[in-house]
Write a structure and sequence with these properties.
alpha+beta; two-stranded antiparallel sheet; two-stranded parallel ribbon; globular
Length: 78
């Protein structure tokens, strides 16, 4: 299960092709990652989700499992 599930308050979680990602502004995202890094138990992997990665995860179950194990954030647009 994606670590984003259960974290987000209403309006702070989005979904694309079944992958849940955090929909936070930059400051809130940094605060959340900092809180996770300060936690004494376990670890959290972080990744940035693009539409291309989400589409690839539909074809490659192993890749999907990796993404599902990460705390996902949308990749910033340029």
């Amino acid at each position: 299960m994606n670590v984003t599930t259960g974290f987000a308050r209403p309006g702070q979680q989005r979904d694309i092709y079944g992958l849940h990602f955090c929909d936070l502004d930059w400051n809130a995202a940094l605060e959340h990652v900092s809180d996770r890094a300060s936690a004494s138990e376990g670890h959290t992997s972080l990744s940035f989700l693009t539409l291309e990665k989400a589409k690839l995860s539909l074809k490659d179950i192993g890749y999907r499992q990796v993404l599902e194990s990460c705390l996902l954030f949308p990749q910033a647009r340029r």
